[in-house]
Amino acid sequence: MKKVTASNDSTRRMKAQRIAAVLLCLSLAGPVFFSHMNHAASPQQDVSEYEKRLEEIAAQIDTLKTQIKREENRKVSLLSRLEKIGFKKKLIRKEISLYHVRMEKSNAELRFLNKKISALKAKLGREKESVSKILVTLYKFGRLNFFGFMLQAGDMRSLLSENKHLILLARHQQQTVSEYLNALNELKSSERKVESKKSEIALLLDQAEKKKIELDGEEQKNQRLLNEINRNKATHQKIMAELTDRAEQLQKLMKKILSNQAGLPVSLTPLYEKKGRIPWPISGRIVTYFGLKKHPRFNTMTKNNGIEIAPRKSVVVKSIHPGTVVYNDHFQGYGNLLIIDHGMSYYSLYGHCTDFLVKKGDPIQSQQAIAMAGDLGSLKGQTLYFEIRYKTKPLNPLQWLKRR
After folding, report:
1. Whole-prediction pTM value?
2. Residues 61 and 188 occupy one common structural domain
3. Which domain holds residue 104?
């Protein structure tokens, strides 16, 4: 009986050692693969920049909604109607921008998911054979009962010496299979996320398209009002009277700014020294000239304190000279208005802007981007309204700007 028992113990020991050897061979590639997978799962696209842009646009949308509400509370006038339409157009454009940024973010996340899925499929494909061998081995030899096996061993010290890695290897093969299954689950989860992102992008695209239709409606409403102003003499005279009143309000604003004028550095080159050589704030065609102008149809006279420039390509507005921003806000009749103090009581004014790129108090360099030209408050579509003033007196910009 002792010989039979010893023979059985020897058989069990050899069987266990063979299993250990098989498990060792099958497990060699496992740690490298899954260690690599953990590193590959880190996000490739930093979404913080998208989140920042979304927050900025959302804040601009809230501001526009406030401005629209303010216009609704104003006394009804042609200017208020015109600017309310302008604000709504700008609001819709911002909402479209919001959808586009969301789509960019979703597309970036989709690209990352697709890369992750490709990596998972490639790695899982390579590891499938190794895991299959582990499963076959477990099926052939059955689950090891190490506790019972060690109880039957005659020499515990010898057993531990010869099989010290057996338990660790058995645990490792369980971990390898478990991690492989986890990777499969991660693949399925990523594929579900891909489908979800595709649906999200499709919805955002649909919402953006609906907003474009809404924008077209506001554009048509704006054009109908402009047509009425241009074709109906009474309507034209009414809005000219409103614009004259707003010009007087701008004059009061300039007086207030002049009274609060802060001295600029003495080293600053005076604006008057560059008369006739000042760079243009934007490249484009002049659609409204400085001074008294006669309406070709109604024979009415209009006084313009500045010029209007329709941009050719870029809508970026640039400062004509170094200075400091002393005003950047909505001013009815001029849309979004920005005023720069160039020192020694010289100022430049930029109206009909759609967005400001600088804020009040900012020091400005020559040819620095300061705003984006728009159509808010404009009777001529997308234009830049531009003035140069000495104290409160408007100067003819064409005598100061470079000849073209």
Report:
1. 0.72
2. yes
3. 2-229
306 and 209 housed in the same domain: no
Whether residue 250 sits in one domain with residue 346? yes
One domain, residues 252 and 193: no
Question: Could you report the per-residue pLDDT of 199-210, keeping only the tens digit for each?
Answer: 999 999 999 999
Amino acid at 44: Q
Q: Residue 66: which residues within 8 A CB-CB, separation 6 or more?
A: none
376 in Cβ contact with 393 (< 8 Å): no
What is the total count of domains within the chain? 2
User: Do 186 and 304 fall within a single domain?
Assistant: no
Distance CA 201, CA 199 (A): 5
Burial of 282 (0-12, 13-18, 19+ CB in 10 A): buried
Res. 290: pLDDT tops 80: yes
Tally Cβ neighbours within 10 Å of residue 59: 11
Cβ-proximal residues to 323 (8 Å cutoff; 6+ apart), any chain: 264, 268, 340, 341, 342, 343, 348, 363, 364
Q: How many C-beta neighbours within 10 Å does residue 125 have?
A: 9
Q: Is the residue at 132 inside a domain?
A: yes
Q: From residue 313, give the alpha-carbon distance in Å to each of 3, 204, 283, 354, 389.
A: 99, 29, 8, 16, 27
Q: Per-residue pLDDT tens for 118-160?
A: 888 887 777 776 666 666 665 665 544 444 444 444 444 444 4
